[in-house]
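TICKET #2291
ISSUE: user wants both folds in one file
ATTACHMENT 1:
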Amino acid sequence: AAASYTDSSDDETSPRDKQQKNSKGSSDFCVKNIKQAEFGRREIEIAEQEMPALMALRKRAQGEKPLAGAKIVLMETLGALGAQCRWAACNIYSTLNEVAAALAESGFPVFAWKGESEDDFWWCIDRCVNVEGWQPNMILDDGGDLTHWIYKKYPNMFKKIKGIVEESVTGVHRLYQLSKAGKLCVPAMNVNDSVTKQKFDNLYCCRESILDGLKRTTDMMFGGKQVVVCGYGEVGKGCCAALKAMGSIVYVTEIDPICALQACMDGFRLVKLNEVIRQVDIVITCTG
């Protein structure tokens, strides 16, 4: 039987060295193990229960296919609305192998697995965009790596690209650098600074995910632990609130005077990192 969890497989063969096919006979993907697709589909269905607005949009607009003709490097909803999507991971550790397998089984060209090397990471991005008979006309990016790769390797693609959507601080900074240099030749949307991203995703989602992530990786008890959080933006606020509620002793480092004042008024001690780095149990960076 196929392994059920992302890190449970004993097979150390690189996915790049395997020839896999989904049930439709397609091999235009590269994932850890296509046999994990059924388990991944269940994970997707569980996640969809937390996305009522997106599911309602998919149901309402599916018949209209408003994205017909869009070739995008979000996957299932965009596909349901008519877009042709290809996907590569934005982080070498963030991919859930089962979910990637489920998407590949559904016919999406997915190039990602957990634990990629840096060479694998760029190889996956290249396979995502460099395919005969297909060229992206929209980019959904996280961190700016996909945009950077196309700009570096395939600049002619920008002749057909209509726009870029970027959701991270790092990626937005890279786009601003391109713009200042006069090299940003297509419209780019800064999703990171949108109200819903800043005030909801960054604050409330991080407030829950920080505890879940730390518990899964360390299994430690939070009460009494000394934690330093670097940055008191929306992400930092969420992390500090969650850890404070669990009984942790929380220190904050912050270069922005207004955010620093907010941290002080919220009851956190402002410090310089070198003052506490040797005594704290956990260091969390929330600087983008």
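ATTACHMENT 2:
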Amino acid sequence: MTREKRDPRREELLREMIGMYHPQSVEDIQNMLKDMFADTMENMLKAELDTELGYKKNDQREKLTTNRRNGSYSKTVQSHLGESEIQIPRDREGSYEPKLVPNGTKDVSALEEKILSLYAKGTSDRDISDVINEIYGFELSHETISNIVDRVQPRVIEWQNRRLDKVYPFVYMDALMISLKSVSDGHTDKKAGKYAVYSMIGINCDGKKDCFGFWIGANEGTHQWLSIFDELKARGVERLGFVCIDGLSGLEEAITNTFSEAIVCRCMVHLVRNSTKYIPTKRRKEFCADLKAIYGAISAGEAESALSQLNEKWQKQYPSAVKVWNDNFCYVQRLFEYPAEIRKMIYTTNTIESFNSALRKVTDRKGAFPNEAAILKILYLRTLDIAAKWTKPYPNWSVVRGKLDILFGDGWDR
């Protein structure tokens, strides 16, 4: 993975800190960071008091207030780095109440979480600084915000490699395009440009969604897909039920080779898109109505009849459009092998397309990302934000679950 170029000023600061602390272990580095955190907090608190009093320390000009600084007192606070002792400045009249560390508050990690939450929504560094300034009364530099976001990286790695459930009755896979300045697939670095970021969402046996992770710059080939599905197995997945995809090259073969019991389904909406690109705009509405008669049929026989009518009406003028449905009709027929409640869940990948749309709202604002780590951080943070709402099971899940029990038999979920 190509490393992001560091700010020379940050490099110089790091050299100074290493020269001062001479860290020899991870614990030494942790202690160094805790000291830096404490110093930063104290400087922010001093800036707060400057604002409260209306003048800076050692300002010799005439003051508009009789209130003055009155030393400081010690307070132990808790952050993601552990406990740190900081000095809280005081004023003579006792009217100053710290906003950064309110009286009675010892846990200040909420500030970091607020910054990460704003970042996850695609908020720019400047806007984050403005929001923090409005809430807490002080500004944050671009470097400070970057440092806070960078500390998420270990959590990203842990999340991307976490254990998954043994069984997922439904899985959806799709991709979104991201602009990256550099991409590494573990073997070679690739040129800057747009790359696919593949994501997977599973619906577990309780009917709740779970994002498995993200894979960047994957080649659309069986070998690459096998690697991804082998990774899922290593993370504890033993069985996949229905896997809904967009017909990416080599994907179906990789799924069935790794999870032999999986039933691969094609997204009907993608087939519609793939075929309508061959149809003139003025005739697409008419063409789509004929397509709906195929995938919206109530039986396989009715769908087959609708396909025959499609061929008869459109084949001569738009053979490429009709070919899409002739080549993929086996997936339409597969839909009718299952009850309507299950059919409703497998005829489209809308579950993951809506998820990717929510991701895209954030990634599009950021422009080109410097490297893989940067995009994984924003996708991880945005996913946490979205997944916070995934508390309820899929609508009508008890009925769907009953159909799955009949279809797969007793013990399918164990």
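RESOLUTION: both attachments delivered.
EXTRA DETAIL ON ATTACHMENT 2: The two ends are 38 Å apart (CA to CA).
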